[in-house]
Write a structure and sequence with these properties.
Length: 553
């Protein structure tokens, strides 16, 4: 393939990544406002979980289909579904609708995710991919820096609905470029069977597993019939999934992949780091707005340094990999740095300043950025080009499962911790006084759904205005009581989020132990795979390469 064609395809991938990056960072910044308007703080994690869940279960199917039918049709269909979900999310009238439409977005996002990484593998050799991953990391960083600022500005100046509509022009541009750049290659493949049973069992296994983590300890006790029943259904379905995958001719996820240490270590590490990262990052803007008391725009500024540091370390990491071919030391160093950063985050509190929070964000960004290009490159390097979509989807699957489970699990941990602390706040003097006055638009009870109304800057402004209109005899008492209530609420909120970061640090530490077992394989300068893992002596079971090694685009 000519260099010009490669760069044109790369441009299409960049636009697609811009679409996904802008969506995630803009939504994260606007979530506190969405939770307040739709009265759903306790369901906050589900807005992200729904997206992650639907994209997770579709990734392996898209990976297999792209190996058979090519990247082009699946990529374009995925972007179209994503844009439809974006429009409907912007029109959502309650939390249930938003969660459902975010799930639809995820179905499209799954195709975008796996095809982006597979296309890079199609057009560049493993030895080249590091530097191009660095370029993509730079683009990701630019949109990630702009996203929080744009999201905060849109949320403050207009409404949160427009954070979804902004996807439309970027998505249309990506579809046009990719439709022109990727040639419509026809494939003469006799066996095009798809493992629908395996895909169904994967869905049936993941959904109850996720529900068990979300509801456990908050809505139901961990040893309740409901939670144990969900875990039981998940266990049976996932066990059946493994059995089916071992027998079918074209599995969604071949169990043979786990016979190679490079894949199994990468999958476990991605699962653990994603659990810690996605779960914790979800609550950074919530902490900034709820505890520190900044606006949505300012909380976006806090996210920007982390993304920028992630870009810098990802670009440097990619260049080092391409020049030296050594990725294991970088993987160990990156996970170690991220572990330290998560542990430091567990000490943030009501006295934490913007500067201190930014420093923590930079530290975390540096660690996560180093690991960004490593695991996909390492796994793609070890398998035949014919399996590129499948192995890329396999690593993305575990990354997505980790993020989905982590967001739900750590969200459940925060909600349970917060609920236990809010019980004592019900008897605060201010709450009793406001209950007697019964003001319009101000909650007279504090729980997981209404706390944001007290902690948001708009909510506080409204309450102070109501206090100024109260009888003069109790205005001073109301002001002192409300100031005391704010400190109590912020402390409870901060303690709950600290618990999230601490568990995230523990998960990162386990990932650090696992990554030490990652083998180092020399990066190929072509798309022909090695026959065995260098220095390990474990034979890799490879399929036959395509004739002339032509990628399926």
């Amino acid at each position: 393939m000519k260099k010009g064609n490669k760069l044109f395809i790369l441009l299409g991938v960049i636009l697609s990544m811009m679409l996904a990056s802008l969506d995630q960072t803009i939504v994260a910044t606007a979530m506190p406002k969405i939770a307040t308007e739709l009265n759903g703080l306790s369901h906050l994690s589900w807005v992200f979980t729904a997206y992650m869940l639907s994209s997770t279960v579709t990734v392996p199917i898209y990976g297999k289909l792209s190996d058979i039918f090519g990247r082009r049709p699946l990529y374009l269909i995925g972007i179209g579904i994503f844009l439809l979900g974006s429009v409907l999310s912007g029109l959502a009238q309650d939390m249930t609708q938003l969660i459902l439409f975010r799930g639809l977005q995820g179905i499209g996002g799954g195709a975008m995710m796996v095809n982006s990484m597979a296309l890079i593998g199609d057009i560049f050799s493993p030895a080249e991919r590091g530097k191009w991953q660095g370029v993509l990391g730079g683009v990701f960083g630019l949109t990630a820096v702009a996203g929080p600022l744009l999201g905060g500005w849109i949320t403050d100046a207009f409404s949160w609905h427009w954070i979804f509509y902004i996807n439309i022009p970027v998505g249309i541009a990506a579809m046009v470029v990719l439709a022109m750049a990727i040639p419509p290659i026809k494939h003469k493949i006799k066996d095009r069977s798809i493992d629908f049973l395996g895909g169904a069992l994967l869905i049936v296994g993941l959904v109850p597993l996720l529900l068990a983590f979300v509801w456990g300890g908050s809505q139901y006790a961990w040893n309740s019939v409901q939670i144990l029943g969900l875990f039981g259904i998940a266990l049976i379905a996932l066990f059946s999934f493994v059995m089916v995958e071992r027998r079918v001719k074209e599995p969604v996820l071949s169990m043979g992949l786990f016979k190679t240490r490079i894949f199994s270590v990468s999958a476990i590490t991605l699962f653990l780091t994603s659990m810690g990262m996605f779960g914790a990052l979800l609550y950074i803007t919530v902490f900034a707005q709820g505890v520190i008391g900044v606006s949505a725009t300012s909380s976006g500024l806090i996210l920007a340094p982390m993304m920028l540091s992630m870009v810098v370390s990802s670009a440097i990491s990619g260049q080092i990999i391409s020049r030296t071919g050594n990725y294991k030391k970088l993987a160990v160093g990156g996970v170690a740095l991220a572990t330290v950063a998560m542990f430091v985050f567990s000490f943030v509190g009501i006295n934490t300043t913007n500067t201190q929070l930014v420093m923590c964000m930079i530290l975390l960004g540096l660690g996560l950025g180093v690991t960004m290009p490593i695991f996909t490159i390492a796994v793609q390097n070890a398998f035949s080009h014919k399996q590129l979509g499948e192995v890329t989807a396999g690593t993305q699957l575990f990354r997505s499962i980790g993020g989905t489970v982590g967001g739900a699990l750590l969200g459940g941990v925060m909600n349970a911790k917060l609920a236990s602390q809010l019980t004592d706040i019900a008897n605060e003097p201010f709450v009793e006084l406001m209950g007697q006055l019964n003001p319009t638009g101000i909650p007279t009870a504090i729980d997981g759904n209404t706390i944001q109304a007290f902690l948001s800057t708009d909510g506080q402004t409204q309450i102070y205005q109501l206090i100024s209109q109260a009888p003069a005899a109790i205005q001073d008492q109301l002001t002192v009581s409300f100031d005391h209530l704010l400190v109590t609420l912020k402390t409870a909120f901060s303690n709950s989020i600290d618990q999230v970061y601490l568990i995230g640090a523990m998960l990162m530490f386990v990932a650090l132990v696992v990554v030490f077992f990652m083998p180092q394989i020399t990066l190929r300068k072509t798309n022909h795979p090695p026959l065995e893992e260098a220095g390990v002596g474990l034979e890799i079971q490879l399929g036959q390469s395509d004739k002339n090694n032509e990628p399926r685009l």
